Amino acid sequence: MTVTSIRDAWAEVRKIFPTDYEYSTERSEQAGYPIYYSKAGGVNA
């Protein structure tokens, strides 16, 4: 998959993960890159 802008990248994310998600500062600091995760119950994304 190739996108040409951040806006296009987020549009693709919404297609793959059609749930609400949020940024995790703690997980991102541990991983060394941005981590976003689903806020929906029963979804492991």
Structural write-up:
By secondary structure, the protein is an alpha+beta fold. Helix content is 40%, strand content 13%. It contains 2 helices and 2 strands. It has a two-stranded antiparallel sheet with strand order 1-2. The radius of gyration is 12 Å and the shape is flat.
What keywords describe this structure?
45 residues, two-stranded antiparallel ribbon, alpha+beta, single chain
Q: Name the helix and strand elements from N-terminus to C-terminus, one letter apiece.
A: HEHE
Strand numbers in spatial order across the main sheet:
1-2
Residue stretches low in confidence (pLDDT < 50, at least 5 long) are none
Tally the helices: what do you get?
2
Q: Report the radius of gyration as a whole number of Å.
A: 12 Å
Q: How many β-strand stretches?
A: 2
> Structural class, from secondary structure content?
alpha+beta
Strand content: 5-15%
| Helix proportion range | 40-55%
Mean pLDDT: 89
- Biggest sheet features: 2 strands, antiparallel
Task: Write a compact overview of the structure shown.
Helix content is 40%, strand content 13%.
Task: Set out the fold topology.
Layout: H1 6-16, E1 21-23, H2 25-31, E2 36-38
Antiparallel strand pairs: 1-2
